[in-house]
Amino acid sequence: MRYEFDVHHHVRIAARDGVLLSANLWLPRAQSAAQRFPAVLEMIPYRKDDWRYESDHARMGYLAERGFAGCRVDVRGTGSSAGVALDEYTAAETLDGFDVVAWLAAQAWCNGSVGMWGISYGGFTAIQVAMLQPPALKAILPMYASADRYTDDVHYLGGCKTVSEMLGYTLSQIGMNALPPVPSIAQAGWLPQWRARLEQTPPWLLNNLRQQQDGEYWRRGSLAPDYGRIKCALLLVGGWNDGYTNSALRMLRHCSAPRRAIIGPWSHTLPHAPFPGPALDWMHEMVRFFGHWLRGDQNGVMAEPALLYYETAHSAPQPFPLQLPGSWQATDAYGSLQTAGATLWLGSAALCASAPAQAGVAHYAHRPAHGTHASLCWGPGGLPTGLARDLRADDALVPFFTSAPLAEPLRVLGNPYAVLFVSSSAPVAAVVVRLSEVAPDGAATLVSTGILNLAHRAGHAQPQALEPGVVYEVHVELKGIGHQFSAGNALRLSVSSGWWPVLWPTPHAAHNQLHWGADCPARLELPLAPAGQPLPALKFTPPDSVPGGACSELPPRYQVIEDVLADTVTVSVFSGDRNELADGISLSVSELMEMTAHNIDPAVVSVATDIHYDLAQAGNVAAAHVHGTIKSTATHFHVDLHLRTTWQGEVFFERAWVEAIARDWL
Fold first, then answer.
1. pLDDT digits (tens, 9 = 90+) for 590-623
2. Run of H or E including 287
3. What pLDDT, on a 0 to 100 scale, did the predictor assign at position 211?
4. How many C-beta atoms surround the C-beta of residue 632 within 10 A?
5. What are 44's strand-pairing partners?
6. Phi, psi angle pair for 196, to nearest 5°
C-alpha cells in the first residue's frame, strides 16, 4: 500500500534543558481515524532546510509512502536548531535524541514505536541514543557507523593520527557549522543569532587533537566495550571499502540484542547508488526491518541469515572501478568459536605453509612519505579519493612476503591478524601491514590493511616507549574482509612504517627490524569463511524514491607530487559540488587539501586546506571560508585556523584559532 503524505517544516521540539530543536516531519495520511504510524528518526548536523533537504525528502518521503512517519532533526547548534555545537556527539546531544524519541512516541499520530537510522554521523547518533535505552526505541539501522570513537573513526587509527580524513571532515565541519540559520525560519533577529553562534562554536578539530590517547573523552559515545547496553534490534549496514567495517563486524559478534548485518563492497556511499558496485536496494531492506520491529509485519526478516555479505573476488588493481567482481553470500556462523582459520608463516621474503626452520630478519628504514599507491583515505569514497592502485611500487621499498600460488580458492571472512616481532631504534614508531592478492603478471591488488602505533602495543590508553634493540611481539588487526583469493594467485604481506597521507608520520628517523623463526614465530592468521546458506530474496533495482534536487560536481583533482631536491611528497586533492535545491536555494561547496611529508626529517609535516561554502537564496548570499594549516615538529602540532564569513559580499565575522598542541606518543 502507498500512502499520500504531508510535510511539516520546522516543528519545534523542546529538549530537557529548554533548547528548541528543529524538526521536519513527513506524515502519512491516515486511512481511518484510528490509524497510527510508527516513526523513523534521523539526527545529524547537516542542515535539513537547505543542503540536505532534497535527499531527506527523497528518503523520508519513501518511508512516508510506506506507512512510516519520517522525522529529521538538526542536532543542537546546527542548521535550524538552537543551542551551540560545542563538539561532535556531546552528552547533551545524545540526551536530545532520547527526548525526541519520547516526543515522537507521544504524538497522537504515532503508534508508540520509534526507529532510528543514519549514515555516518546519523549512524553514530542512533547507536548512542540506543545506549540510553529509550522505552519507545524499538530498532535502529546504523549505516557506516562506529561503536568505538577512538579505534574506528576519522581521528585515530591504531593509535596513529590521521591526516586526509581529519582534513576532509573536521576542518570542513568548521565551514558547515559557520553557515547562518535559515532566515525564513529564524525570522527577526537571525543576524544576531548567527553572530552569537559563530562566537560560541569552537572548531571540533582542537578537542580531537588534544585527546591523543584513548580515555574518557573517546569512551563518551562509544558502545565498546559494553555492547550489552543496546537492547533494541539492530540492522547494521557496512561496506568492505568503508572506514567503519570493523564496527559492523564487532557489533554483530558482541551485541546481545536481535541483530543482522548487510555488508557490501561499498565505500562511504549509499548502497543503492554506490562506489564501487554492485548496488543493493537498502531502502527496501530498511522498510522490511522497521516494518517487523515497529508495527509487527510478519515478513520473516529476522528468520534470514544474520550476515548477508558480498564476497569480493580478485580484480586487477584500479582506483575507480564501477563494480567489483564477486558474489553475495549468507551465513549465521560468523564469529562462532567453530569457525576455522588458516596460518601462513613469515620466512625469507615468503609466506610459508609451515613455520620456517631458519631464523631471519628484515631491515627497513622509516619512510614517512611511503604508501601513496594505496587509497587516499582509510574509508575512501568516489572521485577523487578512490581505491588503491597497483601496490608493486610501494612494496618494492619495504619488506614483503609472498606465498606460493594457491592451488585452490581461499575464502576469508572477518579480521585477519598479523603477529609480528619487531624492534626499532626510535621510542615511537608505527607499523602498517598490507595484505594483497598478487596475480601471475605481478600486479598486486590491496585486500586489507592493519595499523598499529607500536608505543600503543599494550593498549591505546597506556603508551610505552620502545627500547632500542628490544624485540616486541605485536598483534596487528587488519580491516575486516569478505574475500575469495583465486587459485593461481598468491597472497602478499608487506610491512612498512607509515601510510602517507592517511597517517601522520611518527617523528623520529628510525632503523626498524622485522624478525622471524622459531623464537619469533611471525605469522598471518586468516579467518576462513564458513559454508554459505541459501540467500534470501534481494532487490538490486533502484528504490522507487521521491525525486530529489540537482547536483553538479566541479572537476576533481588528485595529484601526488615528488620534490626530488627536497625529498618531499605532496598530495594535492580538490573536490567540490553545487546543489540546486527547492525555492531557488543553491549551496556550493569546495575543498582543496595540500599535504606534504619530508623523508629526510619525519617530524616536519605540513598540511593545509581551503574550504568554501556559498549559500544563496532569493538574491542573498552567505559564505564561509576556512583556511587551516597544521604543521608539526618533533614535539608539537602547530594549528592555525582562520574562519571568515560574509553576508552579501561584506565581511560579517572573522576569527582565528592558533594553538600549539604537544605530541603525546604520536
1. 999 999 999 999 999 999 999 999 999 878 899 9
2. helix 282-295
3. 97
4. 23
5. 74
6. -60, -40
